[in-house]
Predict the 3D structure of the following.
Amino acid sequence: MAILKIARMGHPVLLGRAAEVTGPTAPEIRRLVRDMEETLLDAGGIGLAAPQVYQALRLFLWRDGAEMRVLINPEITPLGEARAVAWEGCLSIPGLRGAVERPARVAWRGLDLDATPIHGEAEGLAARVLQHEYDHLEGVFYLMRMNDLTQLGFTEELARLAEESP
Ligand code: NI
């Protein structure tokens, strides 16, 4: 097990389209996922995509409540017309938060570590994390989804503002 270095915005690995995982059960994929779990726990995040640890592969982890889940070769489909705005951060853009509008509900499907097809529906935070992590597989940052950059700031400044205005 190892804590991996996290690529930050500006590194080209974060800008390309990641490749399909051809052997989800391969030992190197299991090792990568274990290391990504450790890295995500250490960083205190709620999602981590393989390109963020310099592996241009279509897989990501996300925390579904207390459970750490992995999704390989994912597909995400919006459900319905409802959209929601919420604050997002990214381990590849440390220190910043931005308000991002996204579909409120999604269906997701992909493979688990045994190459078994899995699928489900998500809303709220889970829907947001799934879409954010999927974007990393397409070379997209949450910043690129923002249409009002006044809703972008440093977490520390935003926290101070929140304290001052009850
Ligand atoms: Ni991110």
Summary: The chain has one domain: 12-164. The pocket of nickel (II) ion is lined by residues 90-92, 132, 136 (CB under 6 Å).
